[in-house]
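Q: Protein A?
A:
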Amino acid sequence: MSVFTKLCTGLLISALSLTAQAAQPEVQNPDQLPTEATLDVADTREVIQVLYVSNTAEIKLSDLVSERNPDADLQRYADELARDHSFMIKLLETMANVKSISLEDNELSEVAQLTSTKMEQEMQNLAAKPVEEFRPAFLEMNIAMHQKTLEMFNKIEQGNTDDALKAAIGIFRQLVEKHLSDAQKLQSPSEPAQPAEPTQPVE
């Protein structure tokens, strides 16, 4: 376990110690991922469930990349996603256990179910892409998801009063920001330097 991981886990456990004392609905229209307008950021149970299903979907997404025989750079990125989202899931499971929040499918909030359904649809669409379209589509999907996630983190930090949850969001933010930056670099690799124009002699 890295020093960063140990530090993150220690911070979250400390925050958890302060708070420890203290019919599946039909999905009608999963066309949009839940945003701050539909997610009740003040509801710690709903936030944890949404984060849990989102991170679970991210791991499935990284597995999909491996199945498509990606280039070395994309595989390294997928491995990074799988490792970091597995870490986030463990912290969410710890929080959920302390707070007696169920993460079972049949006990998820409507928003969490909608999130899961939408992400499954997006993965199915991505899996159907031909080889030449898969890489750019995967990176575009990841960039959009991570941008929305960071926006959601801002709203949670502003609208939720749970110290343990906010501590976890602080940890998650660092990882998601790196995922976003790495995806953007893979999407737009640095162009090779162009040779300088020859200097014109001074007449």
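Q: Protein B?
A:
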Amino acid sequence: MNNTEPTVLPDADLLALSVIWEHRRQRQAAGVKILLLPFVPCPTCGAPVDEVIIGPQDQATFLQVVTMQPCGHRHTVSEDALLRLQEHVGEMLTDIEDADRRDEGASVEAIVREAHDRTTPDNPPTSEDAPDNPPGSTREQLPDDVLALLSHRTYLSTACETARLLDGAIIRNPGRADLPGHRDRLHQRCRRNQKFTGVACSCPCHPTPP
């Protein structure tokens, strides 16, 4: 166990870790137990990571603590950082799923590079690609003739998917009065439509048009 004070997990490391964590969770939920993506090395010491432990909160800052094992280095993560990166996580997971379907797979090195590119201030998006894409915007939606060629899948936004995971956490942790607020904020952050296809989010939290 490493007893040093936790350090803030940089956005690039948090993004790469979040993508790999969620990809592993999805694969395990599908019954896949082998050939899982390995975790990124510890950002503090560079040692290989066999396990990532989430929680408990740091009592001084109320930030979530992420512990890398076996080195034991601890890092803090804020809710704002998770919300800021959630769309990147969803897009990167979609790319990995597409690669999996083509039997090409994904490498940790490529995920780390993309996470760095997406979060490095020295490489800001151009004005054409700037993240001025609020919920409901169709700025990045594909042309109608291209959409007509696609076989659409049910879409559940990253925000609503995470909120639904929190529903389970609320049931398992009835003493955590803060969890419903986190869940509700995530539902409110849903962009309602997939930004490239326009497919509506299928979460029942959204009112059905009359």
